[in-house]
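Students often ask why inverse folding is considered easier than folding. One informal answer: many sequences map to the same fold, so there is more than one right answer. In these notes we will look at a single instance of the problem. The structure comes first.
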């Protein structure tokens, strides 16, 4: 797996003109002035409106859609110290509408919202617990009255009517970012909605959403990564908001909010001169800029809000802390550096990639490759004022956390002593540039770079030139920097296995379900839905045109031209997997630790990294992928090197024994991990004891395998029938390289294959205990076998009933009743033509709310509410999403492969589009009655038994409490 880049983290001080790059001011055809960086591969234009609003525009024309972001330069660092969590909670409330969106009668609703605000101020000031309860009861009563005039989730209905996807937002320490992906013909309508919602804040349906945020707080408590991260930040930044307060906020502050404080915050920070609009996709510059000006240009400039500035004293000694939770042990430590606009960032990033680049870093080779720990890694990240270089490691069997720490520190010492190859700096820079070629071809990835540049006040020219600047660092400069900054000045957190004694448990406040008014509409909504746009006609894939098929001897070779950049990939695909040979996955993954007669395992990794080619393997139940990717000019060398590894892999008993130990330790850790337990439980609930997850080689079998047997499986792999897919810009040269170096095989086929049945679900409840604040419950029912005719109604059902913010399930369980943070339901179509479909539902909630949440879900899964307007909205959204969906580049091939698995040889979206356009609510209800209602659901429940209402759990069905051995089969 490739190491991910912390986008826009490698930034430093500069003036507008430096090196070879220059920021140039130009004027567009409409008279607007913009800045552009010469030689910028993204060709991003940056505008500034008269009121200070920034506009970032970049064109990517793969499909007629636009990735949109609205960035606000504020986050939890600006939270008042007596109102932590405010920025994040405000982010939630910005989805609730305005005096025009989300209301049936603002004149009647407004005084009630004001009364609620006044009551919250009384609630916050009151110290008598009994009186606080009484005030909250009054808040609940007034909120119930106010909800009569509200239209829940009308913003989401407006946005989904455009055919939008990915509607969401996130808040961090210095940023709040709102996301949408829209069809390009809906740009003006999107701007109309966004202009309205950011123009005014109305804290509608406040107390129910507050409970949802508190559920999110609970989820954070059950998240081990956050547990370690919070403790690390507290001690790395002990004097500033980076460490003294979290984005989610404290329990006490969440339970005592101030609507007045939230309004004040909005008025201060949500101003045009502190915001940016970003569009990445298929649009016209001369159309987009005047439209943004039309809808956002009238926002009045306000005083530039003062941003919180973090100040810390130097760390002069090691700060060691401990936390505990039921999961397995690990260690994490970090050094503090200056922020995104400092010279530290370029040095730290270079050091980070020399240490850990997923292939040939010192940590990769000296720890992971040699299996001296279960795993270790590093990562660099930067905020506006400070940054950090973080290291983490997981011990192998019998190893202490202190030993893992010392292994990592030894690699840092290698940097300080110059014990790394001279070519590594150039190789790292080339690797970073290659990764950027890949990521900037993706609208969301490019957008993330853009908004990080904006949030951190870093000129875009510096982002474009960042890797060239890194390449100018000499080895001696890097050594000197490491010696100065990497000493006994870090914060370390030891995550021990044990009881987390800091969990906050809260009682259900007893919220009265609010009224949803599902079919109500504001006047804004009615007028908005009358606006017409020129529809986009769908384009369906013509596979005969897009896929170039030929053969290399007896092997099928399919190619697609890469017309975007010089990156190329080769995929070797075989329809064999663990169902055919239980040792195949073991052998394929062992490849990562093997060398050849010519290269040691470490040197082989270095050779791949030198030429900038990476390889990966993925072995599933019935298909195995092996791939190589890199610059086309180096692909020939990469193919030759990879084929050398396959044909000349040398088994090593010592490395195999460590490989087995790694597997066994990973298995042990999985039995302590909530997510792994939950996955194993749901597999058991769905398939019973005879499921693929439990189909593993035993410890005895693993230890008794001769590693030469595994290398022989690898060497023999390509003798079996396989096909080759190529995506790049020189198919002819690549075919020659494959023909010259690749084992084109004997076209053998596997005759044996394990059978894993899909038994009917019969209403049993499977429980797995785990120490946690929340409870997670999953319902699953087997339906009929894969049927193409079900694709259309199931797709609309998922959109209408159980998917997004305006779905029936979300509205009823979270929005109306505040019973859960996450609640979903879906109909899952099989990915193979001979397999069964499944109905699924899930809830994540406080343990004490579980009975009510389950009752609400059961009611919905047996009686689907009919909301004609909402159905029509879901239907139109689906049509627009299909009309603007484009399978491009390598995705065309993998889409075709998935269709083949389902017995199809054409783009099925053509049928789905036609059927969706005529689907009626009655037809959807028929689908519900036949395929959803009355199903016998098997249930998978994970939680702390001492916190659960066990009699209520037993009412769900016959309960079987499973041991970890039952789930994992070891």
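Output (designed amino acids):
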């Amino acid at each position: 797996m490739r190491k991910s880049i912390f986008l826009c983290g490698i930034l430093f001080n500069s003036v507008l003109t430096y090196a070879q790059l220059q920021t140039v001011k130009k004027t567009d055809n409409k008279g607007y002035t913009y800045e552009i960086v010469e030689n910028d591969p993204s060709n991003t234009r940056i505008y500034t409106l008269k009121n200070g609003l920034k506009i970032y525009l970049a064109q990517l024309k793969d499909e007629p859609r636009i990735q949109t972001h609205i960035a606000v330069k504020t986050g939890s660092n600006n939270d008042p110290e007596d109102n932590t969590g405010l920025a994040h909670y405000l982010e939630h409330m910005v989805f609730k509408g305005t005096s025009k969106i989300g209301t049936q009668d603002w004149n009647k609703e407004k005084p009630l919202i004001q009364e609620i605000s006044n009551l919250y101020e009384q609630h916050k000031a009151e110290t008598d617990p009994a009186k606080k309860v009484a005030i909250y009861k009054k808040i609940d009563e007034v909120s119930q009255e106010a909800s009569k005039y509200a239209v829940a989730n009308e913003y989401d209905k407006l946005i989904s009517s455009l055919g939008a996807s990915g509607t969401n937002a996130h808040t961090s320490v210095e940023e709040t970012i709102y996301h949408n992906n829209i069809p390009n013909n809906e740009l003006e309508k999107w701007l109309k909605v966004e202009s309205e919602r950011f123009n005014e804040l109305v804290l509608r349906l406040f107390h129910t959403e507050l409970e949802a945020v508190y559920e999110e707080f609970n989820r954070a408590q059950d998240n081990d990564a956050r547990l370690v991260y919070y403790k690390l930040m507290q001690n790395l930044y002990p004097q500033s908001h980076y460490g003294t307060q979290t984005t989610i906020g404290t329990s006490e502050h969440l339970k005592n909010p101030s609507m007045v404080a939230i309004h004040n915050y909005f008025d201060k920070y949500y101003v045009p001169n502190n915001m940016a609009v970003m569009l990445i996709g298929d649009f016209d510059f001369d159309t987009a800029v005047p439209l943004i000006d039309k809808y956002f240009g009238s926002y009045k400039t306000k005083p530039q809000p003062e941003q919180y500035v973090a100040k810390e004293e130097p760390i002069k000694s090691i700060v060691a802390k401990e936390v505990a939770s039921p999961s397995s042990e690990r260690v994490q430590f970090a050094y503090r550096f200056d922020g995104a606009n400092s010279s530290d960032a370029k040095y730290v990033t270079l050091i980070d990639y020399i240490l850990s680049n997923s292939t040939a870093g010192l940590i990769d080779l000296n720890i992971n490759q040699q299996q001296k720990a279960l795993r270790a890694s590093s990562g660099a990240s930067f905020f506006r004022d400070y940054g950090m270089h973080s290291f983490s490691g997981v011990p192998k069997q019998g190893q202490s956390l202190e030993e893992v720490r010392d292994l990592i520190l030894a690699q840092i010492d290698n940097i300080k002593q110059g014990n790394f190859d001279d070519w590594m700096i150039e190789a790292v820079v080339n690797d970073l540039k290659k990764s950027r070629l890949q990521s900037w071809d993706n609208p969301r990835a490019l957008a993330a770079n853009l908004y990080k540049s904006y949030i951190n006040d870093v000129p875009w020219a510096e982002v474009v030139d960042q890797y060239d600047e890194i390449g100018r660092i000499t080895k001696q400069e890097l050594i000197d920097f490491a010696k100065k900054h990497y000493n006994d000045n870090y914060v370390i957190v030891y995550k021990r296995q044990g009881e987390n004694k800091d969990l906050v448990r809260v009682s259900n406040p007893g919220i009265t379900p609010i009224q949803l008014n599902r079919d109500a509409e504001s006047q804004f909504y009615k007028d908005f839905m009358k606006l017409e746009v020129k529809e986009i006609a769908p384009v369906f894939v013509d596979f005969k045109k897009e896929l170039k098929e030929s053969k290399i001897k007896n092997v099928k070779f399919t190619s697609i031209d890469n017309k975007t950049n010089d990156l190329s990939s080769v995929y070797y695909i075989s329809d064999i997997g663990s169902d055919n040979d239980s040792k195949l996955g073991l052998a394929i993954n062992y490849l990562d630790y093997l060398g050849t007669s010519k290269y040691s395992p470490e040197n082989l990794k270095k050779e791949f990294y030198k030429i900038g080619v990476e390889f990966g393997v993925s072995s599933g139940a019935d298909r195995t992928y092996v791939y190589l990717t890199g610059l086309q000019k180096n692909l020939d060398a990469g193919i030759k090197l990879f084929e050398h590894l396959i044909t000349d892999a040398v088994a090593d008993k010592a490395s195999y024994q460590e490989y087995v130990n790694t597997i066994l330790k990973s298995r042990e850790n999985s039995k302590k991990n909530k997510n792994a337990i939950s996955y194993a439980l749901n597999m058991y609930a769905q398939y019973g004891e005879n499921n693929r997850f439990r189909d593993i080689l035993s410890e005895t079998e693993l230890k008794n395998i001769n590693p030469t047997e595994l290398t022989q499986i690898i060497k023999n792999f390509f003798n079996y029938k396989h096909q080759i897919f190529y995506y790049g810009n020189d198919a002819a040269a690549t075919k020659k390289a494959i023909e010259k170096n690749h084992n084109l095989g004997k076209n053998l086929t596997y005759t044996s294959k394990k059978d894993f049945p899909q038994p009917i679900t019969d209403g049993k409840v499977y429980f797995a205990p785990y120490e946690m604040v929340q409870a997670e419950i999953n319902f699953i029912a087997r339906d009929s076998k894969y049927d193409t005719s079900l694709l259309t109604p199931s797709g609309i059902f998922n959109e209408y009933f159980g998917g997004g913010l305006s779905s029936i399930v979300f509205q009823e369980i979270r929005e109306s009743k505040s019973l859960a943070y996450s609640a979903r339901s879906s109909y899952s179509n099989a990915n193979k033509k001979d397999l069964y479909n499944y109905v699924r539902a899930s809830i994540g909630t406080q343990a004490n709310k579980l009975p009510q949440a389950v009752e609400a879900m059961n009611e919905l899964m047996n009686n689907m509410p009919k909301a004609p307007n909402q159905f029509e909205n879901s239907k139109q959204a689906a049509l627009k999403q299909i009309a603007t969906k484009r399978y491009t580049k390598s995705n065309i091939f993998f889409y075709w492969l998935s269709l083949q698995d389902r017995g199809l040889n054409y783009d099925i979206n053509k049928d789905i589009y036609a059927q969706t356009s005529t689907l009626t609510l009655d037809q959807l209800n028929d689908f519900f009655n036949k395929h959803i209602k009355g199903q016998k659901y098997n249930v998978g429940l994970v939680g702390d038994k001492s916190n659960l209402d066990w009699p209520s759990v037993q009412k769900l069905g016959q309960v079987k409490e499973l041991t970890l051995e039952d789930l994992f089969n070891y």
